[in-house]
Amino acid sequence: MQDAQAPEKTPVRFLTALFFASGSAGLLYQVAWQRLLFAAFGVDLESVTIVVSAFMLGLGCGALAGGWLADRWPGRTLALFAGAEAGIGLFGLVSPRVIHAAGDQFVGASLPVVAAANFLVVLVPASLMGATLPILIAHVARGWSSVGRATGHLYAANTLGAGVGVFALAFVLFAYLPLNGAIYLAASINLGVALLAALRLQRKA
Predict the structure, then answer these.
(1) Residues 74-101: b if buried by 16+ CB within 10 A, e if exposed
(2) What is the separation, in whole angstroms, between the first and last Cα of the chain?
């Protein structure tokens, strides 16, 4: 029986570090994108609700899609994870322009139009973020033979990374970086995670 502490062919410590970094980037995006969206569309109860709802919807849709993809291609989970992280990072690089363009286009529009614009802006990147957890769970669970343990381990790492990310943003990064700089930092983290995952995949090929 395989040792649960060191599952064969599953670099759990490596993936944990990557998912920790991914969680940090995710909260950097959430805070920074919310500020950009509020600047573009205004800050009131409706806009706050729309932005948070759009982000949560994307995470939920991504989780469903990620689980489906992991079931469909169980042998390519690490590649799927790398692709999702790369997609998040690439969107992050262009997101300030996208959000500013959406604000210029739809500022002053009716509430349903503003809501639709917000949902469209964040739906794809938030969906990619949501997809990473079930994809990695499928990857780690193959070695541990325990979906529950893999879920708890990876969720804890991602949540801890998110906490570190938002703490760093609030108390350190905003003191030295403009808002766009924080977004580009998050994008570089995602692209770095994608590169490391791809290199690991190439080593195993």
Answers:
(1) eebbbebbbbbbbbbbbbbeebbebbee
(2) 25
136/128 Cα distance (integer angstroms)? 13
One DSSP character per residue, 100-141 reads HHHHHHHTT--HHHHHHHHHHHHHHHHHHHHHHHHHHHHHHH
What's the predicted TM-score (pTM) here? 0.88
Digit-coded pLDDT (tens) for 59-109: 999 999 999 999 999 889 999 999 999 999 999 999 999 999 988 888 778
Count Cβ atoms below 10 Å from residue 136 Cβ, excluding itself.
Answer: 31
Per-residue pLDDT tens digits for 120-157: 888 999 999 999 999 999 988 887 767 888 888 898 99
| 31 in Cβ contact with 169 (< 8 Å) | yes
CB 148 within 8 Å of CB 94: no
The CA distance from 35 to 43, in Å, is 9
